[in-house]
Design a protein that fits this description.
The complex is a heterodimer of chains A (about 110) and B (about 280).
Chain A lengths: L1 E4 L13 E2 L5 E3 L7 H9 L4 E4 L12 H11 L7 H26 L5
Antiparallel strand pairs in A: 1-4, 2-3
Helix pairs in contact in A: 2-3
Chain B lengths: L1 H14 L7 H9 L7 H9 L2 H11 L13 H22 L8 H21 L4 H10 L2 H9 L1 H14 L3 H8 L4 H11 L4 H9 L10 H16 L15 H6 L7 H11 L2 H4 L7
Helix pairs in contact in B: 3-5, 4-5, 5-7, 6-7, 6-13, 6-15, 7-12, 7-13, 8-9, 8-11, 9-10, 11-12, 12-13
Classes of the chains: A alpha+beta (about 110), B mainly alpha (about 280).
């Protein structure tokens, strides 16, 4: 799942979240494969961001996996010696690595799920 | 304990002006006490404040309530989620509105805790996950009060956190001699929140002392730490606090597939970003 500005969205990408107006009206449903005309219509409704399936756009702003893991360990610095907290840290670390690997694979396949 | 109570009393006197809630919210709090109020009446009242109505709809459509993007009216949301949840949602929608931009991190922390609580409650099959998420959404409401009504103390607390590298709560206890959990408990009483919400708010740092709703208190306590662990939002200091092993085992967290659960939580937490951008309509 990735949230991106509507300007970078391309046809063929798939919505991971229903787009609603401020009043709660559904503009476009989850799972919709976007087309030029749908993107145009959402722009006309002043929608600024969309949440897409997978991680189809490289916005160039994401941290490296190593950096994420280092920051994670920093946050756990006060509870290092506790076995339960250590288990949680390891579970989060492995999830971060797994998710980043999946995303790399997706973007090297050149697109959405 | 008695000195604690005294300190709270001093604080309460200092606070005097509670953050003013919109008239609609005050009316709502009275209205839902009445036994024969209908979802339609409450829906009408909330919708009469357009901004509040839109915020409430966004919150009830978040994934932690389990009907993402599908609730189109407030009266419908009341039927699906119940008065307790709506009361909590309306409160958080208006209370967090009081916060300045500098507290956007606390709002993200709170939303994140609500999301984690929803995921944990559903994974463990606990009853009324919507109410547990609502308690998590409100768990740090005492911090909002410190920020809004005890501004100079708040600044001192932040200074202490930075100077001594201690947690926000440790600094609160040094400066105010009570913590935000206790202030939150007092606020909950002022605002007539049901015990299902007020007990987790009061006990989220000391879950083992809870005499009632232990499961709910445990979930909120654990979610608070996990949302920090995942690096979402800002709870006042950058560290993950110690999770009570007893609380962890009470709800059966020792039996879940932790890596799988954490992966789900990290993905679910991406929703927090969604709230930074107000959708146009």
């Amino acid at each position: 799942m990735q949230k991106v500005p509507i300007e970078v969205v391309k046809p063929g990408m798939v919505l991971a979240k229903t787009v609603t107006s401020d009043a709660g009206m559904v503009l476009c449903g989850e799972g919709t494969e976007l087309t030029d005309s749908i993107i145009e219509r959402l722009k006309q409704k002043n929608v600024s961001h969309l949440t897409l399936k997978g991680h189809p756009v490289d916005l160039g702003d994401s941290k490296s996996t190593e950096q994420k893991v280092n920051e994670l360990k920093e946050r756990f610095s006060r509870v290092q010696s506790d076995p339960l907290m250590q288990n949680i840290l390891e579970a989060i670390e492995s999830s971060i690595i797994a998710l980043d690997t999946e995303r790399k694979d997706e973007s090297s396949e050149g697109g959405h799920q | 304990m008695s000195t604690k109570v005294q300190h709270l009393k001093v604080l309460v006197r200092k606070i005097q002006s509670l953050p003013t809630l919109p008239k609609v919210v005050e009316k709502l709090m009275l209205m839902v006490e009445s036994p024969d109020v209908s979802p339609k009446d409450v829906g009408k009242l909330i919708s009469s404040d357009q901004v509040l109505g839109a915020r409430v709809l966004r919150l009830v459509n978040s994934s932690f309530y389990g009907f993402p993007g599908r609730i189109s009216s407030i009266s419908h949301s009341i039927i699906l989620l119940g008065f307790n949840v709506i009361k909590g949602v309306v409160l958080s929608a208006s209370v967090f509105d009081l916060m300045e931009r500098s507290m956007v991190g606390l709002w993200e922390h709170s939303l994140g805790a609500a999301i984690v609580s929803g995921t944990i409650s559903r994974t463990l099959g606990l009853s009324e996950p919507e109410e547990i998420s609502t308690a998590a959404l409100l768990h740090d409401i005492g911090k909002v009060l410190v920020r809004v009504s005890l501004t100079s103390d708040y600044d001192k607390i932040i200074d202490q956190v930075n100077a001594k590298q201690i947690s926000f709560r440790e600094a609160e206890l040094e400066i105010l001699e009570v913590d935000h959990a206790e202030i939150g408990q007092w606020l909950s009483r002022e605002w007539n929140l049901p015990e299902k919400l007020s007990i987790p708010i009061a006990g989220h740092h000391e879950p083992d002392t809870a005499v009632k709703f232990k499961d709910r208190v445990a979930v909120v306590h654990i979610s608070d730490a996990i949302v920090r662990a995942c690096g979402i939002g800002n709870g006042g200091d950058p560290w993950v606090g110690q999770i009570s092993k007893k609380a962890w085992d009470t709800i059966g967290m020792d039996k879940v597939d932790l890596p799988k659960l954490m992966k789900k939580i990290i993905e679910d937490l991406e929703e927090v970003e969604m709230f930074q951008q107000v959708p146009a309509g």
